[in-house]
């Protein structure tokens, strides 16, 4: 084994360890791996950067823009709501229709975006049916991964294995070549969930009598907010008078948040004064006799009242009426895997300044956090409870790339949908699919045309809006991981690993070797990105097929499908992690449901893949 090969394996092992460790972003790990290969002289600068000129990278970026246009116009949401309504009051019908709709949407756009868009709809429908959302959110995530296998563009591994075939001189895979295998996988997953879902998917009971949305009053009870609401009256002469809230620094000094201010306003009435109640904002100035509605710990409240010589008023009989009105309310906010808010401290989110919203508490894996909340860093899977005007909560909900707002959201269509853009977005997507299906132009060209059309027709506001919708982490991850495949090929690493598979499993036949690739890819994809997994295993699989003198197509299909079937851990895929907090799931819940499903799919795929793609 030569020195370059040893160095390549060392870098590969360290890269995998860093992926599994999950303390550094996956795109940063991929860039570090690329730089290590370049600095050690294993690959040239041109080879290191060649990944970013790959057509698949451009396609992935373009598909994010196309998907964003579909989401923003309300086309996907309207379709999802319409079909889910067909379920009526049947949980079984809801499960079946939900998995079908999500799988269909995920076949043509980001599965993470599909889950983020569908989550509030599913939770709302489940609540109206007096059922637990946890019974549907895990199947929602699984269906998004199963749906990705239906088409060439459904998931990055499909694009990767198709490109590897071209690189080795084989015919590329067509747009619907994955569809037969995808339908078998989806059908298997659905049958499994229908028969065994009620036994393995947790049913976290949520006693809710509000049939319209995730009940704000229920959220207050879950976060135990009612016991932390207080009223304070500003006395004449106190140091609070004429002070702006931002200058008081109450969150950092006392851990307190002023939510509302009640003030007597006699300027616009002739015979009597009028009681006004409005949301507190950073620039709000405190006046004499104001009543402050404050959220925080009792000891801190008393300390604050003592320090500023203000009066602590008796609690209201129904405290939640202070926060939940026609104009104001509370909602839970989840963070997407690529949210710009991740790793920021609560104090740095500045939701008060940007959206006029207050943060009341944090839910981290079922534990509510209130003490020293301002200094808590947002982690993936966290949820926060926000309070403010409904219109401001709905504005925050529009940042679908960064957050998912669970609670009262707007019942009206988006602005783009009101302007009639939804049919245009649908026509653009259909046109892209026709161009790719009949190979009128190269696939990457069809995607670029569709992405540009989304901007020109107003489905996206402008190019800045389009660029902001691209998940750059996924794009960089793919581009930076391709040099590892080049290094393995160049140093003989691909041949070495291929020999390892062939020598140990080859005597049992090509199906056994294919099964070995499926199993290894499936295991790796539970801990590292499906993109990185496919980049690593696809060249090894095709080399092994050539060595065995069999068709490489079933081997690469096995790698692609296995990379996408990541069900056993919440970190296996962004959709899994996204539903974890909303469904109240634990790691054990994913093990319990995901491992049996993956074993069943492994057995089914060992028969289905050779049937549709003969060895």
TrEMBL record:
PROSITE patterns: NA_SULFATE, RCK_C. Its main location: membrane. It is a multi-pass membrane protein. It is found in: Membrane. Pfam families: CitMHS, TrkA_C. The chain crosses the membrane at residues 6-21, 28-46, 52-71, 92-108, 136-155, 175-196, 444-463, 470-488, 508-541, 553-573, 593-613. This is SLC13 family permease. It comes from Evansella tamaricis.
């Amino acid at each position: 084994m030569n020195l370059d090969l040893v160095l390549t394996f060392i870098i590969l092992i360290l890269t995998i360890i860093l992926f599994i460790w999950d303390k550094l972003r996956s795109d940063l790990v991929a860039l570090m791996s690329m730089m290590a290969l370049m600095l050690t002289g294993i690959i040239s600068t041109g080879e290191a950067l060649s990944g970013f000129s790959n057509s698949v990278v451009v396609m992935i970026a373009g598909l994010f823009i196309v998907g964003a246009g579909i989401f923003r116009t309300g086309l996907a949401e309207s379709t999802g709501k319409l079909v889910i309504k067909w379920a009526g009051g049947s949980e079984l019908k809801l499960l079946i229709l939900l998995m079908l709709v999500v799988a269909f949407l995920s076949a043509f756009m980001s599965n993470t975006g599909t889950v983020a868009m569908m989550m509030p709809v599913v939770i709302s429908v489940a609540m109206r049916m007096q059922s637990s959302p946890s019974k549907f959110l895990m199947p929602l995530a699984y269906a998004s991964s199963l749906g990705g296998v239906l088409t060439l563009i459904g998931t990055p591994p499909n694009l990767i294995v198709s490109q590897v075939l071209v690189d080795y001189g084989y015919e590329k895979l067509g747009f619907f070549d994955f569809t037969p295998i995808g339908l078998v996988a989806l059908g298997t997953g659905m049958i499994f969930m229908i028969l065994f879902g009620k036994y393995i998917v947790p049913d976290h009971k949520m006693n809710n009598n509000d049939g319209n949305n995730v009940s704000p009053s229920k959220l207050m009870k879950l976060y135990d907010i009612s016991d932390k609401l207080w009223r304070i009256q500003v006395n004449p002469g106190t140091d609070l008078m004429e002070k702006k809230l931002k200058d008081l620094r109450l969150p950092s000094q006392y851990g307190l948040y002023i939510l509302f201010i009640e003030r007597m306003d006699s300027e616009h009435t002739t015979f009597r004064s009028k009681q006004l109640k409005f949301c507190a904002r950073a620039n709000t100035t405190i006046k004499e006799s104001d009543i402050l509605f404050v959220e925080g710990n009792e000891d801190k409240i008393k300390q604050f009242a003592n320090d500023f010589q203000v009066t602590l008023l008796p609690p209201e009989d129904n405290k939640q009426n202070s926060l939940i009105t026609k104009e104001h309310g509370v909602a839970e906010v989840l963070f997407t895997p690529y949210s710009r808010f991740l790793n920021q401290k609560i104090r740095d989110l500045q939701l008060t300044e940007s959206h006029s919203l207050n943060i009341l508490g944090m839910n981290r894996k079922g534990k509510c956090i209130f003490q020293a909340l301002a200094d808590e860093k947002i982690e993936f899977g966290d949820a926060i409870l926000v309070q403010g005007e409904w219109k401001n909560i709905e504005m925050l909900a529009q940042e679908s790339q960064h957050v998912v707002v669970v609670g009262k959201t707007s019942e009206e269509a988006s602005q783009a949908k009101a302007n009639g853009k939804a049919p245009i977005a649908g026509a653009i997507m259909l046109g892209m699919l026709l161009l790719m299906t009949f190979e009128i132009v190269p696939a990457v060209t069809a995607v670029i045309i569709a992405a540009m059309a989304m901007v020109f027709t107003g489905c996206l506001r402008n190019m800045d809006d389009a660029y902001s919708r691209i998940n750059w982490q996924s794009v960089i991850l793919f581009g930076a991981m391709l040099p590892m495949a080049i290094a393995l090929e160049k140093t003989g690493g691909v041949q070495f690993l291929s020999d390892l598979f062939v020598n140990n499993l080859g005597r049992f036949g090509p199906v056994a070797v294919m099964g070995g690739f499926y199993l290894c890819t499936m295991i790796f994809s539970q801990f590292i990105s499906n993109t990185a997994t496919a980049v690593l295993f696809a060249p090894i699989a095709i080399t092994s097929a050539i060595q065995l003198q069999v068709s490489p197509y079933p081997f690469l299909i096995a790698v692609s499908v296995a990379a996408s079937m990541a069900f056993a851990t919440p970190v296996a895929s962004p959709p899994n992690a996204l539903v974890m907090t909303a469904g109240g799931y634990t790691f054990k819940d994913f093990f319990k449901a995901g491992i049996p499903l993956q074993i069943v799919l492994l057995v089914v795929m060992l028969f289905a893949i050779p049937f549709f793609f003969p060895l």
